[in-house]
Amino acid sequence: MLKYAVMKTKKTVTTLQPLVKLGLSHDEVACYIELVHRGSLRASELAQAVNIFPNAVYRIIDRLKQKGFVVVLDTHPVTFQAIPPQVAINAFVQRQAQALEEVKTLSIQAFARKTSSPPETRIDMISGRRAMFKAYVDFLKQTKEEVLIISVGESVPDELKLANRDALERGVSIKFIPHRYDEGNAQLLRSWVRMGIEVRHFSDSGFHLVVFDKKHAILAANNPDNIAERTSLVIYSGGLSQALRDYFYATWENAAMIDS
């Protein structure tokens, strides 16, 4: 069908393929080139020139008009005229680039929403004082900003002390609220203040709370008869951790300072 149009001139052949690569069909390119070369044409003249039916010309011209390559002149009979290539092609490429940019942006946003959706809340249960300390050290090694602690005010193993020291050296802020502050642990608490931990006292009992970077938390309950026996909930949830962080700071505001 397009053999005549494609082979008509060398200029037609060399112009056809680049326009097809831009997204125009072979029929659209053939009609457009003919209008560029010959000026305004009626439907019957254009149909004869490119060897297609006149009814098909109207459909092709409508697509070319939408793409900005031709205008329909208000004459009788209706005639079609090509917009100069340097104008039509530049405008078409710019619209295509803008459309692609919009699609790219929407795709990236959709992918980001999908991949950044918050993970499901997970809560693990562990038993014993040793298991709680191990979870504390593991989380502390990953912490970058702050650790918030409410606890009895008990002595802790050297591994935990070293983890606290390393965190402080990395610039992590550690705030601690002990439930107990008396002759039995005053020296211990003051040594933590000298280390760089911020310590305030608030009387309470029965539980331990640690919040790491508003992302993870440990919440533990003691056996009243033996504080070494405790059950801990290890919380993997930004939402729950944030709520526990808010609780910590509400208590912190009412707690008493401890000096070194």
UniProtKB/TrEMBL annotation:
Residues 20-85 form the Transcription regulator TrmB N-terminal domain. Residues 123-258 form the Transcription regulator TrmB C-terminal domain. Pfam families: Regulator_TrmB (PF11495), TrmB (PF01978). Gene3D superfamilies: Endonuclease Chain A, Winged helix-like DNA-binding domain superfamily/Winged helix DNA-binding domain. SUPFAM superfamilies: Phospholipase D/nuclease, Winged helix' DNA-binding domain. This is Transcriptional regulator, TrmB. It comes from Candidatus Gottesmanbacteria bacterium GW2011_GWB1_43_11.
